[in-house]
Amino acid sequence: MSIQWFPGHMNSARRKAAESMEKVDMVIEVVDARLPQASCNPMIEQLRNARQRPCLKILNKTDMADPVATQAWIDYYNSQKGVTAVALSCKKPSDVARVPKLAMQVAPHRGTALKPLRMMIMGIPNVGKSTLMNALLKKRVAAVGDEPAVTKTQQRLYLGNNMVLTDTPGMLWPKIEHPSDGLMLAASHAVGSNALIEEEVATFLADLLLQRYPQLLKARYGFNTDGMDGVAVVEGVAAKRGFRLKGGEYDFEKAAHTFLQDYRSGALGRISLETPQSRAELLATYRST
Ligand code: GDP
User: Fold this and answer.
1) pLDDT greater at residue 246 or residue 176
2) Ligand 1 residue neighbourhood (C-beta within 6 Å)
3) 159, containing H or E segment
4) What pTM was estimated for this model as a whole?
5) What is the ipTM of this complex?
6) Which CATH number fits domain 7-171: 3.40.120.10, 3.50.30.20, 3.20.20.450, 3.40.50.300?
7) Residue from 131, 150, 189, 264 whose mutation best tests the ligand 1 pocket (most atoms within 8 A of CB)
8) Cα 251 to middle of ligand 1, angstroms
9) Per CATH, is 193-288 categorized as 1.10.1580.10?
10) Euclidean distance between the first and final Cα of the chain, in Å?
11) What pLDDT score does 152 carry?
12) Which residue, judged by its Cα, is nearest atom 21 of ligand 1?
């Protein structure tokens, strides 16, 4: 995959994240509800545990995720020590309005004018940290999109009198532990998108949807998915949309792009790429090989 994770970067990111964490009482960790484990960086959890910082884990973009899978993830995370998990859509003002109260509940020992609750938002790129921050502060303080890891001079941004946020979300690059994590991230966030990768990612996504959401493929493209594999799905999209090259064969590249767009825009429906059960199965496969 196109995401590279060099040891030097990792150490410097870890040091910055550790320094930032020293100065806060709790962490608001944002992940993508459609792929909560593939879109988290395990370093955040390690640092939280080492420094005993409680965490409000926001499964964001829940408007795009499968509600049944999301509920399973919420139960899974809420059983972890020091974690309170909630599913939100940070694009919805009423969802963001719940965050300050939830944060207070996570760290009840702070939150007065004398001892304001100090918080930082952390997560990998594109999970919605800037969207959350902007909505919390009700003004545009962070550019929505990719941005550098952590600013050198941290400012403090007050939310009312008794809560304070560090000025830049703490960003850690995804640590891709399994190839399927990279493919899930690429499907959801257009990471390092180019034609070759898009074709691989679209085929991976099609295989996954055949297993988990064949009815959504049927509803969108009118397929009878019996006996189909991922390649056949992408070819089927080309056939349905009339994507052909000059020689008459299917334009696989264009169909792959369209298929990914249909998933990313939500046109295919509400989809989760992993569940606690599928994650456990994945880990079991790696352990046994
Ligand atoms: P950051 O890199 O973590 O700061 O992520 P951004 O805030 O820049 O968001 C990345 C993309 O996700 C943007 O296109 C946002 O509009 C989109 N986004 C953020 N929150 C949500 C959400 O709750 N639902 C949906 N559908 N999209 C969201």
Assistant:
1) 246
2) 60-61, 63-64, 89-91, 123, 125-131, 144-146, 169
3) strand 156-159
4) 0.92
5) 0.99
6) 3.40.50.300
7) 131
8) 30
9) yes
10) 21
11) 45
12) 61
